[in-house]
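User: quick one, sequence for these tokens?
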């Protein structure tokens, strides 16, 4: 028969062993668990609030914020971790902007609960004062641009360089990069805004998000344009000349990409570039999975056609 001291000793040992086993089971389960993130994205929607008219044109019946909103709502009902992003040029292209100067576009995006956007050159078409006013009054989402210094202008404090979004157990770092305004934005519309070199700024932003904020995924919302024949900085150049960026969601060149492009950065690591044309006729969808053993992986990409039919 065990004496009391021996019994307590063996009971403590057994309890400790069970606790240790439970701890290792939790660690093992944590390493095997998979976190999923769905990224939805648009670019260069250009004030296209209504679908294209049924006039026999190539894009007839496509686009429109009602169908886009229905599609987004359906995906959110199916997926717990969704980010909705835009890569700029929200304004200009239909009478809605000519008359209302951006109000309905921003209200529509706010109603769809966009998480963040960056700025395109046409977003300055009503002038910097108008842009600042419209964002202040109607934007209920973050405007991210790291390489425009708005100090001393009406846009000061209306944007931020980056933001971290938490989705489930994931930390997603997002920053924005705007195109060089020279030749695209008249000086009187851009005001005293200072344009900063995008590669250096991108490296600084991505380094901070990766090394200091420990983000699981780093996204650049870019309005640089996908590719050029000359040496102009594009998304391809940005991908090759930077470190720590995982995904570039682009705009400006209205490029319809059938699937994302993978390039190697300065460290030989993959950078994913994607862009979905213009006018909101496509909603881009990228599904990522995260695991502590295998890391992050793009497991599915879809270009979702936006129409009244697909929106239902």
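Assistant:
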């Amino acid at each position: 028969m065990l004496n009391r001291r021996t019994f307590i000793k063996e009971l403590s040992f057994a309890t400790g062993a069970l606790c240790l086993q439970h701890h290792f089971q939790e660690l093992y389960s944590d390493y095997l668990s998979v976190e999923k993130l769905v990224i939805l994205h648009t670019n260069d929607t250009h004030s296209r609030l209504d679908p294209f008219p049924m006039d026999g044109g190539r894009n007839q019946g496509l686009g429109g914020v009602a169908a886009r909103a229905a599609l987004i709502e359906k995906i959110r009902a199916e997926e717990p971790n969704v980010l909705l992003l835009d890569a700029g040029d929200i304004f200009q292209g239909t009478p809605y902007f000519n008359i209302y100067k951006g109000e309905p576009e921003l209200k529509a995006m706010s109603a769809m609960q966009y998480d963040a956007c960056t700025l395109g050159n046409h977003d300055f078409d009503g002038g910097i004062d108008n842009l600042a006013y419209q964002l202040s009054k109607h934007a209920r989402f973050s405007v991210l641009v790291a390489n425009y210094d708005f100090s001393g202008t009406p846009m000061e404090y209306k944007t931020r360089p980056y933001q971290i979004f938490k989705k489930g157990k994931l930390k997603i770092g997002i920053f924005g990069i705007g195109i060089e305004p020279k030749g695209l934005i008249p000086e009187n519309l851009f005001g005293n805004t200072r344009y900063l070199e995008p590669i250096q700024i991108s490296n600084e932003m991505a380094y901070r998000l990766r090394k200091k904020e420990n983000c699981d995924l780093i996204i650049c919302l870019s309005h640089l344009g996908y590719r050029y024949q000359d040496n102009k900085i594009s998304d391809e150049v940005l991908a090759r000349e930077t470190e720590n960026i995982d995904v570039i969601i682009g705009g400006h060149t209205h490029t319809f990409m059938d699937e994302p492009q993978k390039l190697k950065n300065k460290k030989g690591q993959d950078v994913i570039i994607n862009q979905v044309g213009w006018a909101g006729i496509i909603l881009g969808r990228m599904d990522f999975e995260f695991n502590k053993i295998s890391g992050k992986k793009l497991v599915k990409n879809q270009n979702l056609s936006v129409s009244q039919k697909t929106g239902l």
